[in-house]
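Today's session is about reading a structure prediction critically. Students often jump straight to the picture, but the first step is always the sequence itself: look for stretches that repeat, for charged clusters, for runs of hydrophobic residues. Only then move on to the predicted structure, which in these notes is written as discrete structure tokens rather than atom positions. Here is the chain we will use throughout the hour.
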Amino acid sequence: MSAGAPAAGGGRGSRAPFDERWLARLAEVALETAARAAPDGVAIEVRVDRTVEGLTRFANSQVHQNTWSEDLAVAVRAVTDDGRVGVATIHTDDEAGAAEAAARAAALARVAPPDPAFPGLAPAADVPTVPVDEATAAADPRDRADAVRSVLTEVPDAYEAAGAYATTALERLIVTTAGQHAYVPMSTADLTLGVTGPSSSGFAQDGGRSAAEVDPAAAGRRAAAKALAGTEPVDTAAGDWTVVLEPGAVGTLLVYLGFIGFGARTVAEGRSFASGRLGERVMDQRVTLIDDATGPQGIGAPFDFEGTPARRTGLVADGVLRGVVHDRASAAAAHTSSTGNALPAPNPHGPIPLNLQLLPGDGGSADDLVAGCERGLLITRLHYVNALRPAETLVTGMTRDGTFLIEDGKVVAPVRNLRFTQSIVDTLARIEAVGSEIGYCPLPRLAGGNRQPAVRASGFSFTGTTTFG
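Below is the predicted structure for this chain, in token form.
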């Protein structure tokens, strides 16, 4: 909607970081317009999302860009009695735009094919609350520059730091003619940085629902320590290795596992590792996986994109597959209730657990996991990950920004990056220990994230070597 230099408080001064009344007014206009456009009766869902983000980028160990952006989107879903669905979205902050989206949705519904199985829109239901920090929502470039300064003080002179620090205010309103009216304001802070030297690099990230949860200096120390320890990496052989995966690497694997493994539609269609396996042991007994947007490890929204309240959903308990996540359509087909995992309509993918978390174990810190490893590799992060065979959870990607050889419980040398080709479920079936400390893992292209423990697992398959560290 807009971008440029912010006024005091992090925005352009037109509205406060949170403005529920304005979102409610846009939803009201959309509802009234859709009702007029379909006088014979139509069910209406209106979702209004407003995101205000301040972003400070730094490179070559200095701030080089501050940006501010605001986006307000109005999405309208109109549904006829026989399940004809029309969806229209517009990015606007005025009533005329909201009315236009509603009229288009109603018009599309009249010509769409019927869906007799459409489950109806979300009814009235209470939604949980999440902590929101006004100071984070209103943070300005000076606040973020102070945080970046704390990062840079931890970086040695011969090394350079680059990254970004974002503070975000997000508010969402969903109103349906079935009776739901759900509103939430949210705040997030997200710091990502890399430190590079002549032959090595290090990485760190931190974040939460408020800037107070971010420790920029500690993040700078972690990234710098990785880069310093990674100087002059050596070659190592591909093959099956015991690995200690730090929280960032675990978070990456769980994001992919959530997208390809635990959605009810994917499971029902036989495209998931979980298809037909409910009640079976599928992972090591140390593994318990949940989806929980509002618990201590989650940094998500308290309701989904249909307005259904989020809840803690057990997926794997002590290694046994116990459940999947649902939206309203998959829940109706399975004769159960939605778990609050719908994506925005139109949605051909079905539900997804955006807040998939591995519960901490008793393995202590990442250093403790290393101490228990006779020979293996310590992995800081994974990147360039792609799914090869989703039903097998087989993915491939690269290590990056800190890969180290472990011998006799100690890190003895940095090694050059490796390519892995590995089943995520197989990794979780080969767990030797789950850490008791958790670290921040952001969600790609979404505000918020999760906190994950480190793990140690055997038989992690590396299929290629590189010439760079």
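Discussion point for the tutorial: Residues 28 and 137 are 26 Å apart (CA to CA).
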